[in-house]
Amino acid sequence: MHNTLTLQSWLDHLRTLYPVKGLVHVGAGIGHAADRYAEWDVPSAVFIEAEEKLHEKFVASVNGRRGWSVHHALLSSEAGPRTFYLASNPNESGLVSPDDLTFLWRNLKTEEKRELSATTLADLLASSGAGVINWAVIDCMPALPVIQGAGQQLEAWDVVVARAMLEKKRLRESGISKPELDDFLAGYGYRAIAWEEELQPLLAAVLYVRDWKNNCSSIHARHADAVDQCDRQEKQLTAFQEQLDELEKARTEALKQIEELTKARQEQVDLAANCQAEIVKLKAALQEAETGKKQLQSQVNELMERQQMMNEELVKAEGQIGLIKDLFLREEGL
Questions:
Q1: What distance in Å separates the CA atoms of residue 215 and residue 210, rounded to the nearest whole number?
Q2: What is the pLDDT of residues 200-215, one digit of tens each?
Q3: Reduced to 3 states, what is the DSSP secondary structure of residue 168?
Q4: Residue whose C-alpha is closest to residue 47's, from 135, 114, 142
Q5: In this structure, is the dihedral angle defined by the CA atoms of residues 109, 115, 121 and 124, taken in order, positive or negative?
Q6: Whole-model pTM?
Q7: Helix H segments across the chain?
Q8: Which residues of the chain are under the pLDDT cut of 50?
């Protein structure tokens, strides 16, 4: 440890400065920490364990304690499928392959691999109905993805205890080392004040507290960034609104053209209908004229026949008149 105080002493002092209103413990194991929290008289505690058998043992150890709840879940920075490794040492089961940790424990092996669906700490706390949480213990590796998945919870925590590797190693899984945790948590106003090494000296429980001075500076910096972002978004919204106005203007013009084209088409339809009506009338008139012509032709034929008959009658009459004249002339000659 980097000073003479034990981690437990630090925690006792911090409980005076930051009384535990609510606590979340990720990687709870079989529940050894529950006795300590009971001594602290923690009013609200949320325990989370990904390994099913350990979870069942933990449930039995805290069953019936008011304000405490135990959850079986795998946590990460975002929801989705993840590979969970069961190690020959149950304390090292998690998202990190035991094969990558053999430089710490030579005989560590992978007992089983399980494909599980991970969730985020923020989502689990929201669904659990937990009250105010101001202490967080992340007793698993990698701790960083779990903390990243806490979302706005990071703004409410006072104390964070995280299991980490003191040196940054080149591993397939990121977020294991203390330098990575330091960099991320510094952005939220936390700083490491102590750590206590495990039996394996490369591993330690690292204690972070909210550095209010740096936190204010961080908040101001994030506020300035948020203001800049809002300004950029406002400019984007203005440009977008101008585009919308142009599109609305084009839409209005298009609608106007459509209306004019629709009106012109209707006029053409009406004109075509009128033309069709005139054609029908003309056809009817033509039909009527044809009928009249036939009637006139019939009358002309009839008159011509009558004229022919009259001519014939006239010829007959003229012949009879000639006969009569001859008769008279004969009688006068007698």
A1: 7
A2: 999 999 999 987 555 5
A3: coil
A4: 135
A5: negative
A6: 0.63
A7: 7-17, 32-39, 52-62, 121-128, 143-148, 178-186, 212-333
A8: 1, 216, 219
